[in-house]
Every structure is written in C-alpha cells, then in structure tokens.
Write a structure and sequence with these properties.
alpha+beta; single chain; OB fold (Dihydrolipoamide Acetyltransferase, E2P); 5-stranded mixed barrel; 5-stranded mixed beta barrel; Arc Repressor Mutant, subunit A; 6 domains
Length: 764
C-alpha cells in the first residue's frame, strides 16, 4: 500500500478507520492531514470530516499527533497496569496505561470489557473509576472505539480511603488545603479541627470526607504526617502511592509470620560443618545467599573446582495459598529506595528466619556444581540442608582481604575460604569469557542521604571482583535450577530476554553510522555482536552514549513459563533461583525443585502450575512498577537537591532527541532534564529521527545524541522530578549526510522510516 492510496474505497470520501490507520502505518513520511487528503482525493467538506476522524483516532490513542504529522504509538504489553479514568458514551469503563513515557505521545485508550457469561448473569465489571487494575490486553479489531480492550485480572489494592498530598495553609481561615501530587488529583479543604500536626509544606495522608460547604471542594482529614516534602522519606512515599505499591502488611500476614517456627532437620542434610559465607553490601539487613568453593579432588577432573551456592529456604515458610503467599504475590518483589525498603515479606521472615545469619542454624536449598578447569559445568546436584554461616562479609571487606589488606575478621578466612573462592571465580570467568554475554558498562549511581533525609552526595560505587564473583556464581546456580526442572519436566517460570527487534536494530545501526561505527545486518545477532561495538567505544568520547544506545536497543527481560533463552546473558536455560526473599519468581522455582526432587514439604501445587502464565505476567508487571517507582524517587530527589542552584551552569550530555527538544543528562548527578526546541535559538530546527539530531534549517548547526554541552539550570520542579535547562553551547556543524537528509526531506522525498521509542530498562 505504500506510495499509493487503497483502491477498494470511494475516491473523494473519507476512508474507514482501519484504512486510515493502515495508510498512516505504511506511509510514515506522508502521514500529515494534507498528505492523507491528497492521497484519498478529499476536498471541501470531506477535509473537515477527515480532521474529525483523525482527532477521534488521536483521542482513542490509536495515533500520536506531532506538529506536522501522525504516527502509530508503541504497542501495549499483553498484561498491563491500567488506571481507570473515565467512561465512554455507553457507560463502559475506559482505562489508560499507568506507565507511559511522555515522549511517546498520548497513552492509548483501553476499553474494559466483561465476558459474555458475566453480562448474561448481570454482573457488574470488576473495578471502578479511579481504580488501578492489572489487565489482560487485546487489540481492538472493531473499526470503532479505543485502540485496545481489556479483561481485568485483578484490582491492585491501595490503602482504602487514603490520599497523598501537600498541606498548604490558608491564612485567616485557621485551616488549609490539600494540594494534589498527581496530575489528575483535586484540591480539598482541610478544616482547622482536621489539621492534626500538619505544617505548611508537609506531605500528608488524608481521609476524604463529605463535600465542604465552602468552595464546593471535598473535605479531607489528616491521618498521617509523612514529613517535609523536601525530605527523601516524603519523596519515596509519593512514589509508593503514585504507583500503587502495597506497603502495609495486613495483620493476618504479620500474625502468620510471627507464628512461624524455626525449621527442623526433617528431610534435610546436615551441612553445618561446611564453612559457607555470605558476601553482601555493608548495609544489607537480610542475607539470602551463601557460597563456598574447593578444588575437585576427582582424578577425572584435574584442575577442576566444586562451587556450592546455598539459598535461604523460603518455600519452607511461605506455603501456597497462605496469607503470606497471597501478600508476596501481590507485591511481586521488594522495592528499594534510598531511605527504605518496601519488602516482599515481613521482617520476621526476611530479616530473621530466612536470613542466613552468621553462626546461626538456617534452612537452605543448596546446589553443588562441578566445573572443569576450562569453566565448563560437568554436573550439579540440589540438596535441602541445614547450614550455619561461617561469616558475614561485605564486598569491600572480602576484596580488601584478597588485595592484601585483611582485617581481624577476614584474615583467618583468607586461606581456607576466600582464596579458593577467587580461584573458582577465575575458572568460571574462563567460561563466561567464552560465552560472551552482553558487556554493558552502565554504572549505577548511589545516593547518600543526610540525617534529615535530603541528598548529601551522589557517587558511582567501585565495581569490584567481589561483586563479579557473587554475580557469576548466582548465574550458574540459576542455570542449574532451570536445567534440573526441565529435566524433571516440571513447569517453571523462566527469566527470558528476547533478542532486539529488527526495528530497534535499525535505529541503533543508523545512530552508529553517524559516529563512524557499524552494526552487521541480519536477524541472527548475538550478544558478542554488540560487545565489539562497546569495546570500540571504550575510552572514547562516545563511550557513555554508545552504551546507552545499545541498552535502549535491547528488549526487556521478563518472566514466562515458555522459554526462549536469555539473549543478554547468552544462555538457553535460565531461571531466577537465588533471591526468594525479595522475588516471587524465585519462590516459584524453589517450590518446583522441592516438589520435583521429593525434598519434603512446600513443593509446588497443581493449582499453581495451572496459573504460571498469569503469575509470570503479573510479577513482570510488578517488576516494572518497582523500577518506575525507584526511578521516580531518584528523579525527585535530584530535583530537590538542585532546586537551590537555579542559574548555575553544568556540563551535560545530550541523552535524547525528540521533535520537542533535547533531553540532557548531568553525569555527576545521574539526573536528566529537558531543553524545549523553542529555546534553542532563532533558527527553525528540523528533527532527524534516523540520526537522532536537531539541525537548524538555515545555519546547518545542530545537536545530536551523545554531544557534550554546557547548560544552565532555569527551573526545577521537585514534586514532578523535572529539570529544565537553557543551552549555552553553540550547535555544531552537522555532517553532510544529515544535511543532505534534511534537504531531501524538504523537497518532499521520504527519508528513512525508523521508529525511535525508548524502551524501559530491564533487569537480568
């Protein structure tokens, strides 16, 4: 259909919705109202009808409108968290995705549907206005209505009757107002008798009451003062509420946790003699993995090693369909903020009974893995054990001992425990180097807070061999778990990571050509195809942005009962096994191992096996929810931190380019801000998606992804986590290829058709 109008419609009449959508999809270079009218021979009244039809498509989220053209938005995942925001003309509920990037345009509308059976029984649909729900998504094949329909899987619980906002005093009234923190929120009146201990500028939780007699606003009563809106405690609470993260354990869950008793030796091997050690961050409160390594003395494996990984036996305590299990599934994972953790399990379980404490008997599932001197796994076995951790070490403590600076605790462990661990890691690294997983260099910044909860400093922690040792041993334990369950034909939840889509490969390929790099063409790319590019960029001015662009090109890792392998790790069989305290997926794998290997109580049930697809979709969604909440909290924190530095100048880097302007990152803070295109200068700037650039039409000067720039901070909006800059650096002369592209586009010749959405970050 590209380059010509469909012949099966009446020339001169506005085509049906599906034909319009197909034309926009197939002709992105001709997707303006003017070009569409020309293609279908529309004149006079027909052009007015076309305008209305296109506006309806935009309202339903089927197309995104920019200043000059229309485009199709990105597809929703098969299971999505929706906010139910309105009703259509027939009274049906309409939702939109709770998470949707600003640069992607209008979020698509989703019609909430009932099954025919429920309709026949007269049942009302689950959920109502204002609810946040987890829903199964289906493309809408009808010509009318929103882009998608959905079936609600479950309503995601929020704290009933409680809203979050900022308290503002109203002089002369004795009372104040609740100012909403969400864009769809409403102001409310707080009478003097309902203020409690709230002060102007405090973040508060309120209970919504009857309508006030004054101003026609709802009345609210303060339930809890979270703290000053400038403190991190308040900022993390904003994210918790905004993303609907359950953070209060029901009393039934707490009671069940408190009633739990220490595990016995029934169905367990006694491994308390084995000097397993935990190596974690220095401030870790729970310890769910321990390691030990020794040379393999078998004559059949000269130079080989035996690596043992022991993981807290959470499945012994968290039984299927219990209150603890239901709450853990509702949370999906623990969520980590700079000032707090919202745990998946109560402290009685996570920090006590399942934490592998030093010198204390603790139940565990252990895997004993035998590797050849070439780093190839020869065999492995799983065991349900009772262990006693020989020591609790931090990464820095263990690394210092290996580097010749042991302390009183690590010194005695150096020869019998630490050196054998590092010798085993050297062998595992041989296998890792041969496997060639994706080697992205994306340092994670850590925020250090002051006592008052505000930002003290932002830094990048050093990446130690101790970190890499634990990571590789955990990866090998995860592989062993997947292999064992497959061999036993036990249904499980894999951790899968698809290869980059062809469209994302093309976006990356086009960008790389602008800096003199190349990416081979073809649909069979492997992780090492990207490693060559990353190695070439190392040490150059392009290192950071090339790593960022390669990351953006990747698919998101998710959970699924259907295995397609893990592209990033370059592994065919992979499942999460090593963190059952903080991830529900690992708990499922533990139950599968216990049941399929006949290791006693707490195995997976047939009912659980039947729902693995839905559970995998849910916990994948909850993982994205946690990542978004963590990211939003950091953005708000940095915006608060920089709010006192309006007018200051910074060195930044162009981290994103859109028609609307430039996204700028400040590497020293891990912060991102925006420069509107209208403030770049007097020239008219043309957006080149293929080259990720904005170029002045008259001057030929512009800005491209990866450019280093000098900027001035002109606005900080802490509650939104938003920063706005003015550009101080003059644009550079754009390469000939980019300027030629612009000239061809202005003459009406179509340029390359490349999608440019930014994918969410994933986790291994």
């Amino acid at each position: 259909m590209a380059n010509k109008a469909p012949t099966e419609i009446i020339h001169g009449a506005v085509p049906p919705r599906d034909i319009l959508l197909q034309f926009i999809t197939d002709n992105p270079d001709r997707a303006s109202k003017r070009e569409i009218a020309k293609a279908f021979g529309l004149k006079g009244e027909a052009r007015v009808e076309l305008k209305a039809a296109l506006k309806a498509l935009e309202g339903d989220g089927l197309v995104n409108k920019t200043r000059k053209s229309l485009s199709r938005p990105g597809a929703l995942p098969p299971v999505t968290v929706l906010d139910i925001t309105t009703r259509d003309k027939d009274g049906e509920l309409i939702g939109r995705p709770a998470e949707w990037p600003d640069e992607a345009g209008v979020a698509p509308a989703v019609a909430i549907r009932q099954s025919s059976a429920d309709r026949a029984k007269g049942k009302a649909p689950v959920g109502g206005l204002g609810d946040r729900v987890l829903a199964k998504i289906f493309p809408n094949k009808d010509r009318d209505g929103p882009a998608y329909t959905a079936r609600i899987i479950k309503v995601l619980d929020k704290r009933q009757g409680a809203l979050l906002g900022v308290y503002r005093e109203m002089p002369g009234t004795g009372g104040g107002r609740l100012m909403p923190i969400e864009r769809r929120g409403e102001e409310m009146v707080i009478e003097a008798s309902d203020i409690g201990d709230a002060k102007d500028g405090d973040l508060i939780e309120v209970e919504v009451g009857r309508m006030s007699n004054r101003l026609g606003l709802a009345r609210a009563k303060v339930l809890n003062v979270v703290g000053s809106v400038a403190s991190e405690k308040a900022i993390s609470m904003i994210a918790i509420h905004a993303h609907g993260i359950p953070y209060i354990f029901p009393q039934s869950v707490l009671d069940e946790a408190e009633a739990a008793k220490p595990a016995t030796m029934k169905n367990r091997e006694d491994w308390r003699h084995l000097p397993l050690v935990t190596i974690d961050p220095h401030d870790a409160k729970d310890h769910d993995d321990a390691v030990y390594a020794e040379p393999d003395t078998s004559p059949d494996n000269p130079g080989g090693v035996i690596v043992t990984v022991a993981i807290a036996d959470v499945s012994y305590y968290i039984r299927s369909k219990s209150a603890l299990d239901r709450e853990a599934l509702k949370r999906g994972n623990s969520v980590y903020f700079p000032d707090r953790v919202v745990p998946m399990l109560p402290e009685r379980i996570s920090n006590d009974l399942c934490s592998l404490r030093e010198g204390v008997d603790r139940p565990a599932l252990a895997v004993r893995m035998v590797f050849s001197k070439e780093g190839r796994k020869a065999s492995h076995t799983f065991h349900r054990i009772m262990m006693k951790s020989a020591a609790k070490l931090s990464y820095q403590q263990a690394q210092a001992a290996i580097d010749g600076k042991p302390d009183e605790k690590s010194g005695p462990l150096l020869e019998p425990i630490l050196k054998p661990l590092w010798a085993a890691y050297a062998i595992l690294k041989v296998g890792r180097d041969r496997r060639q997983p994706l080697e992205l260099d994306m340092p994670e910044r850590k925020i250090i807070l002051k006592e008052d909860g505000t930002v003290d400093r932002v830094f990048v922690p050093e990446r130690l061999d101790a970190h890499k040792l634990i990571e590789e041993m955990m990866i090998q334990a995860n592989v062993a778990a997947a292999e064992t369950l497959e061999k036993k034909r036990q249904p499980l939840v894999y951790r899968i990571h698809d290869a980059p889509s062809l469209s994302k490969q093309e976006v990356l390929r086009e960008f790389l050509t602008t800096i003199g790099f190349s990416l081979v063409k073809g649909g069979n790319l492997r992780s090492n195809s990207f490693n060559g590019i990353l190695a070439k960029a190392e040490g150059t001015q392009h290192q950071t942005i090339v790593n960022e662009m390669v990351l953006r090109s990747q698919s998101q890792a998710v959970y699924s009962p259907d295995n397609i392998g893990h592209f990033g790790l370059n592994l065919m069989k992979y499942a999460h096994f090593t963190s059952p305290i903080r991830r529900y997926a690992d708990l499922i794998v533990h139950r599968g191992l216990v049941g399929s290997l006949g290791l006693g109580e707490g195995g997976i049930t047939p009912e659980e096996e039947a729902t693995l697809a839905d559970v995998a979709a849910e916990i994948s969604t909850f993982e994205r929810r946690a990542m978004a909440a963590e990211r939003d909290t950091i953005n708000r924190l940095i915006a608060h931190h920089l709010a006192t530095r309006i007018g200051d100048e910074f060195d930044g880097q162009v981290s994103g380019v859109t028609k609307s302007g430039l996204f700028i990152s400040l590497p020293q803070f891990g912060a991102d801000g925006f420069i509107p295109v209208s403030t770049l200068g007097r020239d008219y700037f043309i957006y080149d998606e293929a080259h990720q650039a904005l170029t002045g039409e008259k001057t030929g000067l512009g800005y491209q992804l990866g450019d280093g720039v000098r900027v001035k901070l002109v606005e900080a909006v802490p509650l939104a986590g938003a920063l706005r800059f003015d550009i101080l650096s003059e644009g550079k002369k754009m390469p000939t290829g980019i300027r030629s592209f612009h000239k061809a586009t202005r003459r009406g010749k179509p340029g390359p058709k490349k999608p440019g959405t930014r994918p969410p970050r994933g986790r291994r």
